[in-house]
Amino acid sequence: MSPIYTKSVALKEKDIEQNHICFAFPAYARGDARNRALLVLNSILGDGMSSRLFQRLREELGLVYTVSSFITAHDGAGLFMIYSAQQKSAEEQAAAVIIEELRKLKNEGITDDDLLLAREQIKTGLVTGFESTYSRMGFNARDYMQYGRIRPVEELTAEIDAVDQGAIAAVIDEVIVGEKLSVSVVGRLSDDGFYRRLLM
């Protein structure tokens, strides 16, 4: 039985220097072919220094120490998450900009240049990752457990090249859903209502 996702706000007061926020959407289980398009979308939105979130929040506005998006996929369930760390004084603006970028993604989608760059970055990461014995060992083990075989890098890069604008648009529609957004925060908290107002 697959786990049931429940939208929530989870808050933990802690006297630390930075406030840590994590937004989460339910996504795809391990082995779902749509994860390929989600991987490309993740690269565009928040994976690396050239991503939209890093460029906007860190480089342009200087609001956060770090910001990134990432995918976690398990048997029967998955999550697409966005994490940021910032001073409490910058928390409200940083969170608002993240929501703004999500709405922009939802309303405007991505460009062809976005798609091309993301595919090339992912393929480069795959090829260079295979140069590490440790990384290749982990990849081969996961592949064998999931697929019963070890896929060649050429097959993986072809799957990434097959991701097109239509696949990205479908993933945006299915995953970036405001009614399903959850938020978790650790740090010197603002009032509960502030975090609940962040939900799209």
TrEMBL record:
Domain (Peptidase M16 C-terminal) spans: 6-121
Return any one Pfam family short name. Answer: Peptidase_M16_C
Judged by the first EC level, this protein's enzyme class is hydrolase
For this UniProt entry, the molecular function terms from Gene Ontology, in alphabetical order, are:
metal ion binding; peptidase activity
Q: GO:BP terms for this protein?
A: proteolysis
Listed PANTHER family: METALLOPROTEASE (PTHR11851), MITOCHONDRIAL-PROCESSING PEPTIDASE SUBUNIT ALPHA (PTHR11851:SF49)
Know the name of this protein? Putative zinc protease
Source organism = bioreactor metagenome
Organism lineage string: unclassified sequences, metagenomes, ecological metagenomes
